[in-house]
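Side project, low priority. Logging it here so it doesn't get lost.
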Amino acid sequence: MYTVYILQSKKTGGYYTGSTQDLDNRLAVHNSGETKSTRSGIPWQLVHFEEFPTHADAIRKEGKIKARGAERYLKGLDRNHHG
C-alpha cells in the first residue's frame, strides 16, 4: 500500500505533500531534520493522508495535490465533507 500525505508545519504553518510506503517512518524522518526540504518547518504534523494500491496511483494523486496546492486541496475536502 502506498500513502500520499500532507504535513503542516507547526512552526511556519506551511504544507508539505509527499508519498511513501511507511508513513510512520517518513514522518519521523521529516521531523528529524534528515530531509533538507522540510528541515526549516520542524515540527511537522500529519493533517491528511490517502492510501493507494499502486505507486503509480499514489504519484498521480501527489501530483494533483501539488498542482492545486495542499491548502486549497484540504479546503476542498472540508467543503465536500461538511456541506
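Brief comment: DSSP finds three helices and three strands in the chain.
Revisit when time allows.
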